[in-house]
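Quick one, probably user error.
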């Protein structure tokens, strides 16, 4: 069964007809030609497909496109309108937060979403006090980013970049 949906991707509205089983990732890549989000494992285990949907990080390979009808979807490419890098993107460059770069768009979107979550005071598994505003220690950042894997093991640079972006 097909459904007509509207997605606003990186600031541009798109109306498209998709099979109800189409994932957000496949709609982005195959229907809209947005290749910033990567297909890694296609099982929600690696985080390469992470995008922001209405400001929250989601695994686009596990999200049905019809479930995001009307959503604002931001990919790593959409974080840099007019070529002006987002502070997280700039920090990734400055701290070598990538090697092959395949996971980088998902890492960056996840980091942006994670910094917003921490800024809202949301605790993580390693937050010592669930009622206090979380301090973004290296352990806290690593825990919050644990859903995003890097095949090249650039984790030290990734955490350094996020620490800087958190400022």
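Nope, works fine. Designed sequence:
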């Amino acid at each position: 069964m097909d459904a007509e949906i509207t997605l606003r991707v990186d600031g541009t509205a798109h109306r498209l007809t998709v099979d109800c089983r189409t994932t957000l990732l496949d709609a982005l890549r195959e229907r809209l030609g947005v290749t910033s989000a990567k297909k890694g494992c296609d099982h929600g285990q690696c985080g390469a497909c992470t995008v922001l949907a209405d400001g929250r990080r989601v695994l686009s390979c596990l999200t049905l496109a019809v479930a995001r009808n009307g959503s604002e979807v931001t990919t790593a490419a959409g974080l840099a309108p007019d070529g002006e890098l987002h502070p997280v993107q700039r920090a990734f460059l400055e701290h070598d937060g990538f090697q092959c770069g395949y996971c980088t768009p998902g890492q960056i979107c996840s980091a942006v979403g994670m910094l917003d979550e921490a800024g809202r005071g949301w605790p993580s598994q390693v937050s010592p006090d669930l009622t206090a505003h979380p301090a973004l220690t290296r352990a806290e950042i690593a825990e919050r980013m644990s859903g995003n894997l890097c095949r090249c093991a650039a984790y030290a640079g990734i955490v350094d970049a996020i620490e800087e972006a958190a400022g």
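The two ends are 48 Å apart (CA to CA).
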